[in-house]
Amino acid sequence: MFRPQPEDPSESVVEVRVDEVIQLFDTLDPFPFRERDLDKDAEEYIVSWARELPHNRPIKIIIHAPASEVQGDVARQLEPALSRYFNYRAEAIDRDLTDLFRVGRRSLAIGLGALAACVLMSTAITKVLGVGTVSRFFEEGLIILGWVANWRPIQTFLYDWWPVARRRDLYRRLAKASVKLQTVSTDAA
Questions:
Q1: Closest-CA residue to 160 (of 152, 169, 150)
Q2: Number of other CB atoms surrounding residue 151 within 10 Å
Q3: Which pLDDT does position 23 carry in this prediction?
Q4: Distance between CA atoms of 188 and 116, rounded to whole angstroms?
Q5: DSSP-assigned beta bridge partners for residue 178
């Protein structure tokens, strides 16, 4: 595996070295090569490097492989296979984001209902017990409980979705990445 070294300053480069192009893909996947999932280690390597690259530049993936691998049919299908896989992952993450917002909306409805119930109960307690330390204790406690019930939906809508959206956008960038195969000497270590 190589450290990214940009050839063109307008592109961000991820370089990978393999002995066989097929190493990039899950060999247990029964689908034809072009539709196979990436090997988990290969995906993690590519994604981890791409995550560190500037967000405002296109990505280029350079695969270093022996000459015999660069000329094969698998090599010609590599760019569409990588693009298909990363598009699939971006769509899966987009569904996760949709689910996160769906759960957030439900949590918000429950939280607002709990807050309304707590406010009504605190008002009722004040009317029943009158103004005093005990009624103030229950009133404040119920108001705090009502707001705590909204903690999770507030966290979801303010913070939780950002990392998911960032990961989806990274996979979209990787799906658009150009892929270049370069021959490497089989003697090189």
A1: 152
A2: 11
A3: 84
A4: 70
A5: 60
